[in-house]
Automatic annotation (TrEMBL):
InterPro entries: SusD-like_2, TPR-like_helical_dom_sf
Protein name: SusD/RagB family nutrient-binding outer membrane lipoprotein
SUPFAM superfamilies: TPR-like
Gene3D superfamilies (UniProt xref): 1.25.40.390
Length: 482
């Protein structure tokens, strides 16, 4: 009997990403000396950390975005670069981190916020808008990682423990609508989750600055709109133009970054490359060779040399010894480096692509391309003089703008795996070749569904897989048309 109770609780808590089990379990752990309801800012802080850390995590046990874009290779254990997504259960691990540890905390924060004392209702509304925008950001990651996902029926444990999978484009449309409503709710000149008298704030990204949250929300809308470009050009154009007109991220100071203190929180790349002592990650030969052919000055910032030259690891193969190849340099090995999950450089490249597609976003594709490359160089400590030389050597090519923007965005998004994956899937540059020992018939276009879903939500996940053309990593998302 005890085992059956345990299984039902696990199903409720983590199987499908539904609401937390506090109402079922807290009576067993009541402590009259401490509050029984967590403040919403604590829940927000947890969600921000969990979502940021695991979207940016290079671990072989999680999202594997950096391997999907072939920017990094492995040294001794090439399973992940051979696209083995079964042994380590990456689909399950990422699914649970986003639903249970991230979305669930935001949902609970919204509930708890309603009962919190707040002198200014405008502040409460800004806090609610903050929670809503962060929730949308996490949903965007899920729908662009898996495709159709449980959405409308989730977090309703009293109504439904087996939520259906909703159509990805329908989710897109709802997310765009929710962004507009959240932005409209923001009261200018009033903070959200801001520090009070220098004390802790649950907003570990923007410290309650609602102008930055608004620009971040519009930048998510820009990214959603660009992904629609090949499947719904008209909607893409209106969505992108509206986002840019409303104001998107326009400087590095406005980028969505989760900052780590190096003590309580450490950067996930540091944790996996330095703290773990695991010498198993290299820049790939594709990365090194592409950047070398373009005389890219970021090579000197990012990587070490071997016998005076840069040498990348062969993707999908055992690369021994580790010391025989270029390695990620100190630039990526800091415990306090932020997770820059929606950077100004990414927004600039999105605008350049929009202009190349004929959208009205305030400037020409060439000027926006130059601005995007320039921002990436600045972000990585490259001098203005070297940037000028690079742009002169690698100018915008209007005749083949997908390649021109695609390759440069792919380079600029190095170590920003999710952003890079969006560019490579949408623009198909650089051309990614399936490694000879791959477990798949092509490079991955999506993450398969969690294996736990087939146990706990079998009928719905099977129906979802059939609808999208098969629950395979090689099945393209609805917007990935070419």
């Amino acid at each position: 009997m005890k085992n059956s109770i345990k299984i039902s609780l696990v199903s409720l808590c983590i199987g499908l990403g539904v609401s937390s089990c506090q109402s079922d379990l807290t009576s067993l752990n009541d402590d009259p000396k401490h509050p029984s309801i967590l403040p919403s800012e604590n829940l927000l802080a947890t969600a921000l950390y969990q979502s940021s850390y695991y979207m940016d995590n290079p671990s072989v046990n999680f999202n594997n975005y950096r391997f999907f874009t072939q920017q990094m290779s492995e040294t001794q254990y090439p399973d992940e670069t051979q696209y083995n997504l079964v042994t380590r259960n990456q689909p399950r691990n990422h699914f649970n981190r986003m639903y249970v540890y991230s979305l669930n905390n935001i949902k609970q924060a919204k509930t708890n916020l309603k009962s919190e004392v707040e002198a200014d209702e405008n502040v409460r509304n800004n806090k609610l808008a903050t929670l809503e925008i962060e929730e949308i950001f996490i949903w965007e990651n899920l729908v662009d990682t898996y495709g159709d996902i449980p959405y409308y029926d989730t977090f309703k444990p009293d109504e439904n423990l087996t939520p259906k999978y909703d159509d990805a484009k329908t989710i897109y449309l709802d997310l765009i609508k929710r962004i507009d409503l959240a932005v409209a709710q923001i009261k200018s000149g009033v903070n959200g989750y801001a520090p009070v008298s220098g004390n802790y704030s649950g907003d570990l990204v923007y410290s309650g600055n609602m102008t930055k949250w608004k620009k971040f929300a519009n930048s998510i809308k820009l990214r959603l709109g660009m992904n629609l470009a090949d499947v719904d050009p008209s909607l893409s154009k209106t969505t992108v133009e509206a986002a840019v007109a409303a104001g998107v991220i326009s400087s590095d100071a406005e980028a969505y970054k989760f900052n780590y203190d190096g003590n309580t929180f450490s950067n996930p790349v540091f944790d996996n490359l330095v703290a773990s002592g695991r010498n198993d990650f290299l820049p790939s030969a594709l990365t090194i060779n592409t950047m070398t052919s373009l005389s890219d000055p970021r090579l000197d910032v990012w990587f070490t040399k071997v016998s005076g030259v840069y040498k990348g690891g062969v993707f999908g193969e055992i690369n021994d010894p580790y010391t025989g190849f270029s390695q990620l340099g100190s630039y990526f090995r800091s415990a306090t480096a932020p997770s820059n999950l929606l950077s100004y450089a990414e927004v600039a490249f999105l605008k350049a692509e929009a202009a190349a597609r004929g959208y009205s976003v305030g400037d020409t594709a060439q000027n926006l391309y130059n601005a995007a490359v320039t921002e990436s160089m600045r972000e990585n400590g490259v001098s203005a003089a070297n940037t000028t030389v690079y742009l002169a050597t690698n100018p915008y090519n209007a005749a083949n703008w997908k390649q021109s923007i695609g390759v440069q965005a792919w380079i600029a998004m190095f170590n920003k795996g999710f952003a890079s994956w969006n560019f490579t899937r949408r623009l198909d540059y650089p051309v990614l070749v399936n490694p000879p020992k791959s477990n798949l018939s092509s490079v991955p276009y999506r993450m398969p569904y969690s294996d736990q879903e087939y146990v706990l939500n079998g009928d719905n996940v099977k129906a979802a897989g059939d609808k999208i053309g098969g629950d395979k990593a090689t099945t393209k998302l609805f917007w990935d048309k070419f």
